Every structure is written in structure tokens, then in C-alpha cells.
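Quick one:
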Amino acid sequence: MRPPSRLDQPQAEPAPNRLAPSGQPAAMSRLKGDLPPSLLDRYLIEHDGRGRAERFFRDHRAAEPAFRDAGRALVAATAYPDVVADMLKIARHRGWTEVRVQGDAAFKREVWVQAQALDITVKGHRPSERDRQAAGQPARTPDRETARARDGQEPRRAADLEDRLRRAAVVVRGLIANPEARARLLARAWSRAAAHLERAAPVRTRPGPPGPIRIDADRRRERDR
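Output:
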């Protein structure tokens, strides 16, 4: 007898697309069938045993309702934008200024995007940059003061490092007579400096090697005496 495999085990059904109030005062409405009048003509409605509107169908051919009203929550079979819009109208009508969403990613994303225009806070979904753009929110930018300070510091660091390297180049030219060895040493120093600045600020301009530093013949003879 073979041991049971994963295929033999019952698979858990995905969580329904659900929208429910979160952290709301007790005075808000949780009554099944408490709807804005404008929605009554948009759907074919089936009522529960107590006569309350419960299942909302697009037309008479639909096998499943577009969404269900459970009183304390609204549950949808799909993430159609018009259905989500109507669910949010019900939430707003009932005073749900903060809701929690569950279900698939498309449903949670659609609820979050549309809720921004209604000033409804949505928990259960972390919006992406595209979600924010779809909701008409401005793109996030770094703090202005931080950006300004960084923009002022990086050129100063580059200028200070370049000045130190130029002074070091003068000393190296005076100590090392071999021009090839001198050039290798200076090139290595500038390469390390450029790599350091690139790690600190990759978009900034790299420092270039200093221009020719001239030591004329008269000064050299005076130094050799």
C-alpha cells in the first residue's frame, strides 16, 4: 500500500475576496441590505430568509453573484473594477472609513486604488509604485532637506579629495625620478580615489587626473645644489 501523496490530500481553497470594516466605531452600520438607493437598479437581487438583500447578480444568466452582502463584510467572486466600485459605495454609505481586504492580489489592488478617491483607508494591501500612480498620487521623492544636504556634501568631498591628490602628485614627482614608476603610482592613486567616490555617489562626476604640473629647469637645479 503506497503512502498518501500531496495530490491525495484535500487542497485548501483560496481566501474569498472580502472587504470588511476595520477598527471602526460601534455606531457604523453592519446591517445586511443597508445600501445606497443608486445600487438597487444596477443588479438583480436575491434576498435571504428575512427579506434582506444578500446576493447581487449582473443579469439573469449569471450562475454566481457579482458580490454578496454578509452584513459585516462584502464578498466578491471577481475583481471587476465596477463591482469593486459598488462595494466601496456600500462601505462608504455604511460609514466604513477604514476597511480590511482579503483575497487575491488583483482584488486587493483594485480596492486600494479606488478607495483613495473615496478617502477610505485600506489595510491588508501594500501599494506598489504603479498602484500609487493609478490612484493619481505623486511619486515618492527623497526628503528635500536630505537631498539638498547630500547634493552639497558630495561635490565638496570630491573637491577635497582631488586637491589632496594633486598635492600628493607634486610630492611624488619630487621623490621618484623614474617617470614610468611615477606615472604608475599616480595612476593607481587616482583609480582608487575614483572607485571610492563612485561607491559613495555613483551618479556624480568622477575626478580626473590632474593636468601637467610643471617644474622648470632653474628650480630643479636650485633644489639639486
